[in-house]
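Human: I hope this is not a bother. Would you mind checking the protein record under this note? Thank you for your patience.
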Amino acid sequence: MKKSKKILLRALPVLLVLGVIFLASNSVLAVSAGLPNTGSNKISGVTNLAGTIWNTVAVIIQILAIAAIVIAGVRYMFASADEKADIKKQTVILIVGAVLVFAAVPLAQFIGNLANSTF
């Protein structure tokens, strides 16, 4: 397999987790502290919009993580004996990445709820 493809398969789970954490930190920082008094309806609308965007992106990232594992499984079924060892290594990395993605979503929501209740 090409070196660039190997690097991409190893970096993909890390990038997915970083993306989830980045999006979670943006929604956590969307607190109404320091904003001018323009009415609570505008602030709650922005917070609801950020929450909706966050949930949509989180679901898309989770679907991509599962799709990557399924594609690796299909490749494994049609691979020769020599290629199966490489695909097994890649699948382990993909599974670890998927676990991190699925664990990052509730963790980010917990941190967001904790930050909202604290501030």
Remarks:
- Residues 15-24+40-110 form one domain.
- The chain has three helices and no strands.
- The chain has a mean pLDDT of 76.
- The first helix runs from residue 3 to 28.
